[in-house]
Write a structure and sequence with these properties.
The chain is mainly beta. It has one domain. It is built from 1 helix and 10 strands; from the N terminus they run E-H-E-E-E-E-E-E-E-E-E. The strands form 3 sheets. The protein has a 6-stranded antiparallel β-sheet, with no helix packed on it. The protein has a two-stranded antiparallel sheet with strand order 3-6. Strand 7 and strand 8 form a beta hairpin. The protein is rod-shaped.
Length: 214
């Protein structure tokens, strides 16, 4: 995470002698940015409606694995295959065991997201200020699958979606606006005080279509 106060306005490197009007317009700006980089979660296929292979009065579980079944997990688009469906079969009924495919051997796609914000502080009195902040979630409109990318295609009981990227992209660009007012610094310790109250928050999703993840 990075936070940078622009060096313009009262108390800054440039603009320390600005009048109130110019300082209100050009001073008190700050930028922040946050990057989130994650490897994919581990998961595994299952069946929700099949046989009672272990004779325990349940017809769901993990399948048998007769081949590797693992396919490439990067650069996947909606409808692409992330596993070979022919490598998995539902165990026969009453064979005295559960499926042998194991769990958590499939890794979902890695993903990243970058968020940022821009804020402006308006000095009201000497120690009282109002701060307006615009949060921009995913400003590059970078489409990612995110956690749970394989979930919609893990159930063998649905042969139409089994093994396919049947979910949707997440992380559309999002704008959120926030305003806070409070004391600039405590007269006793000199540290910034907690804002006295939160003014408002609004959010609106961009209608622009996201780009495929890269």
């Amino acid at each position: 995470m990075a936070y940078v106060e622009m060096p313009f306005g009262k108390g800054k490197k440039w603009g320390a002698g600005w009048g109130r009007g110019l300082d209100t317009l050009a001073g008190g700006w700050a930028l922040s940015a946050y990057g989130n980089f994650q490897t994919g979660w581990f998961t595994s296929p299952y069946y929700s409606a099949g046989t009672d292979s272990a004779s325990v009065n349940t017809r769901s579980g993990v399948p048998d694995r007769i081949a590797s079944g693992v396919l490439n997990n990067q650069g996947l688009q909606p409808g692409d295959k992330f596993l070979d469906a022919t490598a998995f079969v539902i165990p026969k009924a009453n064979i005295g065991r559960f499926g042998n495919s194991g769990i958590n051997f499939l890794q979902e796609p890695s993903w990243w997201r970058f968020d940022s914000s821009i804020e402006k502080t308006f000095r009201i009195w000497e120690r009282v200020a109002f701060q307006f902040r615009c949060h921009i979630v995913n400003p590059f409109n970078h489409a990612v699958w995110g956690p749970g990318a394989f979930d919609a295609g893990l159930d063998m009981s649905n042969p139409v979606t089994f093994g396919t990227m049947a979910g949707k992209y997440v992380a559309n660009r999002l704008f959120a606006f926030e305003g806070t007012a409070g004391l600039v610094a405590c007269h006793a310790c000199g540290e910034p005080c907690t804002p006295a109250w939160r003014w408002f928050m609004l959010a609106a999703c961009s209608a622009r279509r996201v780009r495929p993840g890269r």
